[in-house]
Amino acid sequence: MTPEFILVTPQARPQVALIQLNRPKELNALNLQLMQEVAAALKELDKDPEVRVIVLTGNERAFAAGADIKQMAGRTAIDMLLIDQFSTWDQIRRTTKPLIAAVSGFALGGGCELCMTCDMIVASETAKFGQPEIRIGTMPGAGGTQRLTRAIGKARAMEMVLTGEPMGADEAARHGLVNRVVPVGQYLEEAFRLAASIAKMSPIAARLAKESVNRSFETHLDEGLHFERKNFYMTFASEDQKEGMAAFVEKRPAEFKGR
Ligand code: HXC
Fold it and tell me: Quick one: fold of 6-199?
C-alpha cells in the first residue's frame, strides 16, 4: 500500500534510501499512521539487499514537531496503553542498517525522540531540538528522558525536559547530540555524503559494529566488551573481511559485497 504521510525512495543515492516525513502543514506531527508507515518502510528497506544506509528526514521548516497533539488530546491512560504505540517505536529501534536523521527546523517532543532513535544526526543550522511536553502537561514518552540524558548529560537534559526550552544546532553539536551542523541548504546532501561513506563499507561489519556501539548503552563494560568481541570474531566469517584485508595488502580499493 502506498503510504500517505511519508515518501520513500529506496535508491535516493546508490545504496542509500531516503524516507521523508510528509505532513508539511502539520509540521510533520507524528500521528499513529505516520509512525506505522515509517516502521513499515524501515522494515522493508532493512531487508532490501540493494540498500546499505537509510536517511530519515523532514523538510526545511520541521523534521517533526512532535506526536500529534490533536490525536492524543482526548485519550485516557488506558487508551494509550491499549494503542501500544511504542511497539512501533521499538521496531524502528531494531533497524539493523545505519540510520541517519537529516534534521532542519523543529525536532520537538516525539520529533526529537525520533531523531535520537537514529544512529547519527546531521543538522542544519536552523535545527531546534527540544522536549516541550511539560508545557502541555505531560512528559517525553518515546525515550527522551533516557536518550537525551545520555547524549548531553543530566543537568542540561533535566533543564530541557523541565522547562521545555529547546536547544539550537550549535549547542547540540557541542554536546555531541548531533554529528555535524551545516547551512540549511546543505543538510540533506551532507547526510547523503555521510551515508555514502558508510555505504562503501562492508554492510556485515557495519551491522555488527552498529549493534556493538548500541550495546554500550544497555550493559556494563565487561558484558559490552564480550559482545563486541563476539561480533568482531563474526566478521571473520564474512567474505567482506577477506576482501577488505586482501585489498589492503594488495594496495587496491576494497569491494564489499555484503557476504
Ligand atoms: C499536532 C501540530 C503539532 C503537533 C504543530 N502542529 N505541531 N499539530 N501536533 N505536535 C500544527 C499546528 O496546530 C498548526 O496547524 C500547524 O502545525 C503549524 O503550527 P503553528 O503552531 O501554527 O506554527 P508556529 O507558530 O511556527 O509554531 C511552531 C511550533 C508549534 C513552535 C513547533 O507548532 C508547537 O509548539 N508545536 C507543538 C510542539 C510540541 O509540544 N511537541 C510535543 C508534542 S507531545 P493548524 O491547523 O492548527 O494551524 C510529544 C510526546 C511524544 O511529542 C510521546 C511519544 C510519541
Answer: 2-enoyl-CoA Hydratase; Chain A, domain 1 (3.90.226)
